[in-house]
Amino acid sequence: MPSPALDQDLADRLRGKFLVFDGPDGSGKSTQLNRFIEAAEAADLTVCEVREPGGTHIGEEIRKVLLDAKHEQSHPMDLRCEMLLFMASRAQLIAQRVEPAIKRGELVIADRFISSTLAYQGSAGGLPIPDILAVGRVALGKYWPNLVVVFDVDAQTAQLRMNPLLRGKEFDASKDRIESKGEAFHRRVRQGYLEQAQQDPHRYLVIDATREPDPIYEDLIAGISGKL
Q: Quick one: pLDDT band at residue 71, thresholds 50, 70, 90?
């Protein structure tokens, strides 16, 4: 069923803004992102959709390196290297796509952003948060998101959404390098997102993503309207 168009007041407030849809793997954020973009375009908004890592030619090449699980056991990637590669992709994305789109008054929507690095490489991986933020200030410049929407879901629910056949088992090793890190890792990821939202409530919107898509979407629209 097509998503209803946004009301005109909210559509006007979204012009030139930068939103990030984020959350643990299996949170359902991509479903809500696609639905929101459909509604935004129906309201005559020009949407610049980007994904992370990637979104540019250089970023997509970096993505291949970051998510390749083939050599993880024999040649594991250093965590600092991992974080810096994400930031390198992000810097190119800002320069090539995000900054020009914002200057044109478009709505920029990113599937993941620095909030993911803070959760995955920081809270779950162990890199100091201040170090990540310091590198982020170099990579992003002044183009930090106006709002980060976190789709919150517990690790077990997320695991079953990614593969219902995994009930009672560990995460599937056939998934990409980061998805396959295990349930304890993904519990720390979730906690990392929640801590970010607690520390910066004006810039973060947390939505209970354990429910059916329709009530999640209703909360998404109401929450974005309230935050912006």
A: low
Percent of the chain, pLDDT > 70? 87
Beta bridge partners of 21: 111, 149
Other CB atoms within 10 A of residue 158 CB = 25
Model pLDDT for residues 32-49, shown as the tens digit of each residue: 999 999 999 999 999 999
The encoded tokens of residue 78 equal 């250093």
CA distance 161 to 74: 29
Q: Residue 146: CA atoms inside 13 Å, Cβ hemisphere, count?
A: 17
Residue 131's pLDDT is: 98
pLDDT at residue 96 greater than cutoff 50: yes
In this structure, what are the phi and psi dihedrals at residue 206, rounded to the nearest 5 degrees? -105, 130
- The span from the CA of 119 to the CA of 158, in Å, is 16
Residue pair 6/36 in contact by the 8 Å Cβ criterion: no
Sheet strands (E) in the chain: 18-22, 47-51, 107-111, 147-152, 204-208
207 beta partners: 151
CA–CA distances in Å: residue 143 to residues 16, 47, 95, 138? 11, 17, 10, 11
Contact 199, 134 (CB under 8 A): no
Closest of 103, 100, 109 to residue 6, by C-alpha: 109
Please write the tens of the pLDDT for every residue from 106-147. 999 999 999 999 999 999 999 999 999 999 999 999 999 999
